[in-house]
Write a structure and sequence with these properties.
Layout (H helix, E strand, L loop, with lengths): L6 E5 L11 E3 L12 E6 L2 E7 L14 H10 L4 E3 L2 E5 L9 E3 L2 E5 L24 H13 L4 E3 L2 E5 L7 H9 L4 E3 L2 H10 L3 E3 L1 E6 L15 H25 L18
Parallel strand pairs: 1-4, 1-5, 5-12, 6-13, 7-9, 8-10, 10-11
Antiparallel strand pairs: 2-3, 3-4, 6-11, 7-13
Length: 266
């Protein structure tokens, strides 16, 4: 294939552009079209492919994103590492709007999403105990601290179906389980990337306190408008961190994390 990239970025709500003056390409996949054209850019000498997961005009709600096509398109371009920034709600009082969470675990509460490339007759069972790449996580934490960004080391992202937000009862349940952040897109992005042998890093920008914190009547439930407001006011910090992570990731030849060990790509 003529076009190639080393690192992929899935942009989320409020994050529809990555760099100006870059090349845009359409990538075909066996699973249909990705959410949008892919933008190719060079950052710190690294070839990067950017794809807005909801489409540039936010046409795809989280439950209708073609996750398999998005992941396949990245792999087809030669991507070995994906960064998936997203807006997320906080489930714990110590994680505040404007903070970043560098997730290390996720919980799937979605349904009916196309979440695997494994369709038989050969069956594989993916090891998924540690969904996020430890190498990428460490780079993100170091770079966030260098930029003066409050970044929480680890955290469980619970992924809900959407497009609605949680009820108060659901939010209380998620919080009582000790989970840290809530979003709508990390599943099945992460296991699909793993099936294709690609590392995955989540950088979650906390925009709200979900349905409100129990016992804190002054905290209002989340709204779509508030999510976008907080994300848009912090999008430059997100981009700044992404550039630093991309520039400081170790070369592909030094990729020893094991994320690609069970790839089903052929």
């Amino acid at each position: 294939m003529e076009h190639q990239a080393e690192i992929g970025v899935f942009g989320g709500s409020g994050f529809y552009s990555f760099a100006d003056g870059a090349e845009e390409i359409a990538v075909e996949t066996p699973y249909g079209a990705p959410s949008d054209k892919i933008t190719l850019v060079t950052i710190g000498g690294r070839k990067v492919a950017f794809l807005p997961r909801h489409g540039r005009d936010h046409r795809y709600p989280p439950h209708l994103i073609n996750y398999r096509a998005n992941a396949w398109a990245m792999k087809k371009l030669g991507v070995s590492r994906i960064i998936g920034p997203c807006a997320a709600g906080s489930l714990q009082p110590n994680i505040k709007p404007g903070d970043f969470v560098i997730s290390d675990q996720l919980v799937d509460r979605t349904h009916s999403r196309q979440d695997t490339f494994i369709q038989g007759p050969t069956v594989r069972h993916l090891t998924f105990a540690d969904p996020y790449c430890p190498t990428m996580r460490q780079v993100a934490l170091e770079q966030a601290r260098g930029l003066g960004i409050t970044a929480h080391d680890g955290g469980t992202m619970v992924v809900i179906q959407g497009p609605r937000f949680s009820t108060r009862a659901e939010s209380r349940w998620f919080s009582s389980m000790g989970w840290h952040a809530i979003g709508m897109t990390q599943y099945p992005e992460v296991p699909l990337a793993r099936e294709l042998g690609m590392c995955f890093l989540n950088i979650a920008l906390i925009t709200d306190f979900d349905a409100g914190l129990e016992g804190s009547p002054d905290v209002k439930p989340v709204s779509h408008e508030e999510v976008l407001r907080v994300f848009n006011s912090n999008v430059d910090r997100v981009k700044q961190l992404l550039y630093k992570v991309i520039e400081n990731l170790p070369p592909e030849v030094e990729r020893t994390c094991g994320c690609g060990r069970e790839a089903v790509w052929s």
